[in-house]
Amino acid sequence: MIEFDPWYLLVFVPMLLAWYSQVKVRKIYKQYDEQPNRRGLNGLEIAENLLGHYTLSSIRIENTPGVLTDHYDPQANILRLSDGVARGRSITALGIVAHEVGHASQDAENYRFMRLRTFLGKRVGLITQWSSIAFIGGWILGFPVLMALSGAILAGMLLFSVVTLPVERNASDRALRSLEETGLAVAEERKGVRIVLRAASFTYLTNVVQRLGSFLFLVVMVAAARGIAD
Question: How far apart are CA 194 and CA 207, in angstroms?
């Protein structure tokens, strides 16, 4: 009989939680994507209005391929909208665009957590691909040092995910405030936008849990390799 090691729950449970969060966010996005916004504006028009509200005339708007791939690029000062959001006239499009413009306003104001995330993202992104290689190499070859290196990389990824939380929360707060100040959304619509943004924020939280679980699992494996744990 194969014995199940309970330490594997540190990996499997966060993975299930991440899968659930993705299912939930897609369900909510679809629900509010079927509800048109009161002004009948599409995502591109909403973006132009909100960028004008923040006097961010230097930021360009571009299309990006894929679904829910919308993002603000602080390095290029470009707001990238997926085709579905750019053309969409729904509450979902309203929330997504307002959130991404919120990131643009963070960048313009030198919001400290966004600066920290950008700083970490540049460095963590370069070494992330080596994490699995270091772990597998250390496990197969019996080199705990390689596994410890993998742990250091995972720790950096975990820190990046933790810093992302306040950045996303603040962008959502800015989104709701800007929609109210510009009159682009009435109270009922802002309630829908809030639900959409909360669903999205849950995915960031589960990402933290997932990386924390992976990091703790690696700690246990390194300890086992060194004979510290059973």
Answer: 20
